[in-house]
Design brief:
- The complex is a heterodimer of chains A (161) and B (138).
- Chain A has 161 residues and is mainly α.
- Helices cover 78% and strands 0% of the residues of chain A.
- The termini of chain A are far apart.
- In chain B, helix 1 runs parallel beside helix 3, helix 2 crosses helix 3 and helix 5 packs antiparallel against helix 6.
- With 138 residues, chain B is an all-alpha fold.
- Chains A and B meet through helix 2, helix 3, helix 5, helix 6 and helix 8 of A and helix 1, helix 3 and helix 4 of B.
């Protein structure tokens, strides 16, 4: 139904079913919830636009995740560019709590990982530690996801010592 | 079981639960290998921290309404912007050829006048589209 006539109710169902997953995928790449939400919006708008040309060779979820991943990577590149252009920002940051410090330390450690490992680690925990789901969302073989996870955990453990 | 296999099973256990025999082998190895016991403890602490701090944020409540509004705002144009120009050009070309054959004047005069009128009409139409109507910027 969605394919034949780009039906709005069917698209609503698609959004309902995948909005959180797409949001988490974007968040795992960007690491900022406001930007991840913008990327999620953009991904669904692009999905709506490409639906008339969709030939059914890949599953809808694969297409949607590919669009979301590419949109998130473009947004990340743009954000990195903007950050490097405004490094002289002297914003005041409130004193963090003990829990916030632990969270920041963990985020800092994860942020030191190579990009592919960061993405896999974040998505693994965001998706309730479901390797199959992570593999589908990142369009990677399960074995590759596992080796990224193992390498990342070894590195993180080393840095935690 | 050696240390390498034990470490692999310790890492595997975070993704999928180990079988009873695998669990037993890991426990047995760690009971006499302090390096692997330490590795297991660090991995467990790390897993705990990551589970605690990598949490899924929620979409804002107006996500769906904003998305619906954006989709409604951006209908796909039925025609490309250049298709009107192609239709105009083709129509003008056919009209000129037919006129130069049918009208009781010299074909050269008809063609020259026809081309001049077509160009003037095209420029007028472009002026109206750009400065008055803006039909593609909805």
């Amino acid at each position: 139904m969605l394919l034949e006539r780009r039906s709005a109710p069917a698209f609503e169902l698609l959004v309902e079913r995948y909005q959180q997953k797409v949001f988490r995928l974007a968040y795992s790449i960007i690491g900022d919830s406001a930007s991840a939400e913008d990327v999620t919006q953009d991904a669904f708008v692009k999905m709506w636009q490409v639906l008339p040309e969709y030939d059914g060779r890949a599953s809808l979820s694969t297409l949607l995740y590919t669009i979301a991943r590419n949109t998130a990577l473009s947004a990340l590149r743009a954000a990195t560019h903007r950050r490097s252009a405004s490094l002289d920002c002297s914003c005041e940051v409130p004193a963090p709590s003990v829990d916030t410090v632990a969270q920041l330390e963990t985020e800092k450690l994860v942020g030191r990982l190579p990009e592919a490992e960061q993405e896999v680690v974040r998505l693994f925990y965001l998706q309730d530690r479901n390797v199959d789901e992570v593999a589908q969302m990142l369009d990677m073989p399960i074995g590759t996801v596992k080796s990224h996870l193992h390498r990342a955990r070894r590195r993180l453990a080393e840095w935690m010592k | 079981m050696n240390c390498q296999e034990t470490e692999r099973l310790i890492l595997d256990a975070i993704e999928t639960p180990l079988s009873a025999s695998e669990r037993e082998s890991v426990d047995e190895h760690c009971s006499h290998c302090s390096a692997c016991a330490q590795f297991a403890a660090v991995q467990s602490e790390l897993d705990h921290r990551l589970r605690r701090f990598i949490t899924a944020p929620a979409l804002t409540t107006d996500f769906r309404s904003l998305l619906t509004a954006r989709i409604r705002q951006r209908p796909r144009p039925a025609l490309h912007a250049w298709s009107l120009d192609v239709a105009y050009g083709t129509g003008a070309f056919v009209a000129l050829i037919v006129s130069s054959i049918v009208l009781p004047f010299k074909p050269q005069t008809v063609l020259t006048l026809g081309i001049a009128i077509c160009v003037a009409a095209y420029l007028l139409q472009s002026f109206i589209f750009v400065f008055v109507d803006e039909p593609y910027d909805q």
